[in-house]
Structures are given as C-alpha cells and as structure tokens.
Design brief:
By secondary structure, the protein is α/β, with parallel strands linked by helices. Helices cover 31% and strands 26% of the residues. It has a five-stranded mixed sheet, with helices on both faces. Strands 8-13-12-11 form a four-stranded mixed sheet, with helices on both faces. Bound molecules: oxa(dethia)-CoA (UT7).
Amino acid sequence: MVVRSLMIGCGSCLPGQPVSNHDLAQRVDTSDDWIVQRTGIRSRHIVGEGETTSDLAVKAAQQALDQAGIPASRVDLIVLATTTPDHTFPATAVKVQARLGVTSGFAFDVQAVCSGFVYALAVADNFVRLGQARTALVIGADTFSRILDWEDRTTCVLFGDGAGAVVLEASEGAGTVADRGVLSTHLHSDGRHYEALWVDGGPSATQTTGHVRMNGQEVFRHAVSRLSETAAEALKANEIEPGQLDWLVPHQANLRIIEATARKLHLPLERAVISVDHHGNTSAASIPLALTEAVGDGRIKRGDLVLMEAMGGGFTWGSALVRW
Ligand code: UT7
C-alpha cells in the first residue's frame, strides 16, 4: 500500500463583475477582434479597490473545505501559490491560515508564476505522502491586475484576477494508476529565460513592485513545446495512453496554446477544460478555477483521469496526473 493525496474538494473565487474586451477597448488601444483571435479571451475579472489576493484565496479555500465537508481545523498544511502576495512578507498563506481560523500546522507561499498551482500541488503531495501532513489546502491565487502596465496593450489585455483551491487528504492506495488521488507530479525550470516573462521591479532590485514584461512570441513557442513534453512525461511515468485520459485541465493563458497542446497529445479539444474565455490568464489560479468549474458542472466525475499542466515565468513548467 502507498499513501496517496486524495482530492476531496475544490473551490474558486472570481472578484466583481466581468470586464469585457469592449470595456478594455475604451481605455486601451485594442479591440475585441484582436484579443479573441489571438487569445480566445472574451472577458476577465478584476479586483476592486482594497481587495487583495488573500481575500480571494480565503473565499476559494472556504468553498473547497465546504465541498469536502471538513472543518478548517483539520487542515495541517497550506501551500499557496502566488506572484502577487498581499505584502512582500509574511507569506499570504499565513494570513489565509489565520482568516480560516486554523491555529496549528504550517503555511507558506510558493512562487512559480503561472506554474504555481502545479508546483504547490507537487509540494503538498510530497508532504502528504511522507506523512508530514494529513490534510492540505493547495491554493492558487493572483491579482495580476495590480502588476500590469495598463499602458502596455501587449500584456494588460491578457490577465485577470482570481483564486482556486483544492483540499488534499492522505489515503491508502494500492500504488497503481487505478488509485484515486495524485498519481504523479513533474516539475521543471530553466532560468535562462528569466527576462522573457518577468516583472521589472522587486524589493531587492528596485524597491518597487514593478510591472509585467513579456516577449509573447518567445513564451508562446516555448509553452507549446514544454507543455507537450511534460504532458507526455506524466503519461509515460504512469504507462497511460492519451486515449485513456478523461480530461486535460491546462493552464489557461491562450486558447491557441491549449489547442496546440491538445493536438500534440492527439486529444480531442472537447476533452480539454477551457475557461480562459471568461477569466483570461489568472496565473496560479487558472488550473483550480478551471477544475472547480468542470467538477461543479459535472464534467469531471469521481474516478476520472485528469492531466493538469502549466508553464510560466522563469521559465517554470510542470504537470500532474490525478484520478479525481
Ligand atoms: O501564462 C504563461 C504566460 N503567457 C503566455 O503563455 C502568453 C504567450 N504568448 C501569447 O499568447 C501571444 O504571443 C500573445 C497573445 C501575447 C500575442 O500574440 P501574437 O500573435 O504573438 O502577436 P504579436 O505579439 O506578434 O503582435 C502582433 C501585432 C503587433 O502589431 P504589428 O507589429 O504586427 O503591427 C502588435 O503590436 O499585434 C499588435 N498587438 C495588439 N493589437 C491590438 C499587440 N497587442 C495588441 C492588442 N490589441 N492588445
């Protein structure tokens, strides 16, 4: 028998009202046509004044706990992936811990930008499998609107704010791919691409927060290759054929990237969960947002085999194969 991290609940939070491409075109030199054709994005959500990453994270986490049907006091680990913490320190995870009323265990943030959720899931899964935690909250939460340069149309139309969370609980499995829970995780980074997608500020470098800067075409090119590689790697590690997958839950950055990745996997697009159209790129929140939507509307059912994959600044990338 082996210890597996079962996913026993998920939740999400999108702030305020949707902001459409037409709304954005009022303040930025862009158009609905350009954004839809190049990205598939139609609208995104943006936090209101004073609203923070932890506000969204707490709501998503509470919903995940409610769906799991367990009290927050049972949580002994919180791993929160974010690039937009409330403050430079402490970790946003400890604020979430306190606001959920959790007074034991430990909580910390993980920084892997758009790959953040896959990284946080891998970290939490390892703690659970080693027996150092039993019930973990894995949260992806970001308020990218706070670090966008609203004068830069090549980036500001792409991102949105949101949060998503899953609850993991230790459970005994047979050690086969028939087990429910996290079957494997695969992480990578290559820091040679630091400035292809980065923020031009930071406490140590500039003592400012800075703004998102991106070489979109370079990121696009790498995204399709790296995502296909890490998806194939997850399948190979578990001796699974693409045809056995029930769902692909990819990072939601660009519909064209999702289409290209599905094509390389020989997976029909109908088996990819797509939510980028209505929340844009929410960075670490995008996978749990898509997952929560597909679980909520009954697409993802108990026992389904789900492949998650993401790529982001760093570059970082990775995948996770999960039986729901
Ligand atoms: O989460 C992981 C990180 N992010 C990603 O995965 C994003 C990866 N990259 C992409 O998704 C795409 O590269 C973008 C959507 C960012 C850009 O699409 P593209 O097809 O690579 O466009 P481009 O950068 O080559 O720009 C094409 C044209 C340019 O005009 P010229 O030079 O051809 O006259 C841009 O100035 O589109 C122009 N443009 C815009 N026009 C209207 C750029 N942004 C906009 C805009 N509205 N918002």
